[in-house]
Amino acid sequence: MHVHSLGMKAKGLIGALVGGAVALVALLGACSHEIDSPEPATGKVAVRLALAGTPGSEGAERTVFPDISGIDEYALVFTSTSGGKGHSETVNPPASTANVTLEVGTYTLTVTARKGGADIAEGTKTGLVITSGGTTSESITLEPKTGTGVANGTFSYNVTVPAGASATLTITTSTGETVSGGTITLSVGANNSTMSLPPGEYRLAVSLTNTDGKTAGFTNQVVYSYSTLTSAFTRVFADEDFEKGPDPDPETGSLDLTIAFGQDPIPFNNTNDLSFEQGAETTFTLTVTGSEFSAINWYLDEEATAVATGASYTPANNLSVKKHLVTVTAVKNGKSYSEIVDFTVTAPAVPAGYIAIDSMATLAKIGVDNDYPLDGQYIQTADITISGAWTPIGTLDASGNPDDGAFSGTFDGNEFKIIPGSDIEVSYDFAIFNSMKGASIKDVHIGAGSITLMGEAYSLGGIGNTAVNTDFIDCSNAATLTGQSVGGICNYIMGGSIINCKNTGTITGSSQIGGICSSAYGDSSHTTVIQSCYNEGSIIGSSSGGIAGLVSSAAIIACYNTGAVTGAGKSNYAGGIAGTLGGAANNGTGYITACYNEGTVSSNETRQSGGKIYLGGINGRSLNGYVAVTACYNAGTVSYTGTGDEGNLYIGGIGGYYAENPTGTTKFAEITACYWKAEGNPANGIGAKRDAQNTTEAAAPASNTGTFKFADNAWPTTGASEGQSAEWGTGDGSGSGKYWKDLGSYNGSYPQLAWVK
């Protein structure tokens, strides 16, 4: 274990300009490994501004802190001294954290506090090392700027002297020299005034004598002055102070901690590393010793707010597998103290009945080696890079359906990554799992990299290609994927669910393209749901959606998209959530409920004869069959920027085009209580419809029933009237009518889903 002391002496305050110095705790989390990739290896720097110097009640008057409310910004400048790349970051109060990503290398970090365009304080840390796979911590103290051209700070005092007493206030430098005008005779009653002090550290003394010759007051009080800031001191003396005598000098000391592993606490051992297994029942407890400490706060990693208060803190046993930092701050006699403790959470032992997967070699054994059966239970115990020739796990029959060679077991990625290497060879359909049937996939994460299908290759899924009755839980993709039919998590799913998954990679293709799934199908015996997922990556393709390219007899619930969705090709259908909704068969259905889009939806293809371009904030088009879009909204721009005047072009704030069932069923599409923002080209919520009597596409929308332009008198709510829906209900996200956290307000904020942090 390494304990980094920031214990207070004259200049060791952790308060940000609150104890005469600003301490910045740099929590450095780096990538877990380097890979052969076009992207340089980086490390994450989470710089926390520790503003923990609020004085406690006892002895709080013994240190005069500057008023920091006037600071405009803190400027962080990382200068590369070996490798890496320079970077600048600005923190604006009241923010207390800045997350910065730097390339691997060695840096000098300079932090400057500014007010009114003037630099008033700064600190520098040299030899700051960003490594791939490492974690470290540093603290930086900002000292007042001194020298020519630096404005003075202001010292303000308000001292009340009791009747019959004589009193003197003295200001000296930290080395004992009286400042100009620093000896002030105080009169009986209230004494209020200010004086100008150059930036720096000073000592304040007040001495009183009454008619009986008794004394009161104090010496050696610390005063800090910063350029353009005010340090204010207030003290009321009374007759009883002469009975107590002068206050003793302020105490100094350190913030001591003990540690306990289920037994009596023992002092920290500052030389031994501390680690424990993820999920272990017995972790450890940290305790601040000494009842004189107050305002004790505990911070975990880069959290800006305290995760616990009080004398003791026990880290949760489900922390992620990596190195963590705990910072504790406390106040004693008006002084602020801090300690930083680092510890490592290791991967748990392989659970009973599970088989460990720690490399590409062991991953490739699944379904090939008798000791790695297709129906086995697997857990990933290390990051894995896929390189060279890779054969996806599981086989398909001649019709492209999972056969007896499909993966049917459980695979737990355990929060580790599977990373595409730059030399990966792709000759046909690609995924980690080619074929799955009745499988369970959870916590599998595809790391940054890229995969491009070549030649006859068609289907590409970040994790899975073809999945039947399979569940994907808590998975993600960060890779750039390029093919024909492409999905960030899986290419094709028939039955099962995709829950709590995300995509941040760019997805490009020529047919169905989705951030989460290319095509989601269902039927009377296969229920398919995509729920609580989101996409941040760019999606480009003919039938493209932030969540799914095609949704037929399946449902998308409580999902959102912020990535740009671009329709490509002579005919293209782009939607913030889904490209195409419904199915070619008469009984094809599709459902989108409680979803929203904030990304741009666009196409710049030239309109050609026979081409169709349908753009919608939620979905691009529907095919034949019944579809329902309920309680959704679009706040993104929907626009066509191409040229030409041939071919169909329909643009809607919610949907581009809704088709009618050829059998004559009048209930072909129900759009209920959906809202859109007028950004881009949409003139209506729906671009065009077919009605039951018209077998040709309408030149203008037949009806915009169920869609509403956001306005102060048109805002989502529950109820039975037009524009209202029970699916706008707020709650914990557990089910129908509880999907939303809050519904926002006009000219304020848009509705937010309950599961979104």
Textual characterization of the structure:
The protein has 757 residues and is mainly beta. The protein is 1% helix and 46% strand. A hairpin with a 2-residue loop joins strand 8 (105-115) and strand 9. The radius of gyration is 32 Å and the shape is elongated.
Helix share bin: under 10%
Distance between the termini: 32 Å
Task: Give me the Rg, rounded.
Answer: 32 Å
**Apparent shape:** elongated
Report the sheet-strand fraction. Answer: over 45%
Low-pLDDT ranges: 1-38, 50-61, 691-702
Number of helices: 2
Largest pleated sheet: 18 strands, parallel
Counting DSSP E segments of at least 2 residues, the number of strands comes to 71
What would the average pLDDT be, to the nearest integer? 82
